[in-house]
Amino acid sequence: MLEREIGIGETTYLPNGFTIDVVYEDPSVQQRDTVHVGKVARYEAEHVVVGESLGVRAKRLEIISEEEGQAELSEPNVIAAATHIGDGDAHDRLVVMSLGMEPSAAAVLANKEKVRLQDEINEVAKEAAIRRELNGDQIRGAMKDGREGRKVRLTLFDGQGRKKDEIKGRTKETVMVPDNWYELPPVNPQGQEWVN
Question: Backbone phi, then psi, for 170, in 5-degree steps?
């Protein structure tokens, strides 16, 4: 039986002489797979992702240093501010209280959102670690990658390396290869289809 799933960055050789390449549509996104995400990038990503999920627009996220960052939302949000109450963040505790909510209650709600939004938080944190500063559109783009998967391109090549077909889509891990690509007639070494 032929393998029908292919990992991103892999080339698959088909018995009919064709090859399939799977790559990220935007090659810079691949950096997210290897970047080290520091505590500040994750911390600020949690604030903006939770805020976005609750309908408050993220405006900016900045990593100033390994110890300091900033997240800016279009308006204050008590749950987004509470994402780190349990970590002893005095500033966030004051923001939550100024918005009229008891910090421990807000933290419970924030923690539920953080668990639900892990994929989005991870992608935003990785992008923040790479770029150091993100605008609202970049934050929302990374969130979409976390929710729906990153944009990829599958390309089918004949035995001579000529592009025969291409499919674009989103995926988080692997892609499914269309059955009809496996059913193409074989090619001989000169790139001609075999005649039976």
Answer: -125, 145
Which residues are bridge partners to 20 per DSSP? 12, 156
Angle between helices 136-148 and 118-131 (to 10 degrees): 130
pLDDT tens-place string over residues 40-89: 999 999 999 999 988 889 999 999 988 888 888 888 777 777 777 666 56
Cβ-proximal residues to 104 (8 Å cutoff; 6+ apart), any chain:
85
DSSP per residue, 57-115: PEEEEEE-SSS-EEEEESS--HHHHGGGGGGT-HHHHHHHHHTT--HHHHHHHHHHHHH
Q: What is the pTM of this model?
A: 0.79
**Is residue 22 within 8 Å of residue 175, measured between CB atoms?**
yes
Tokens of 152: 């990829």
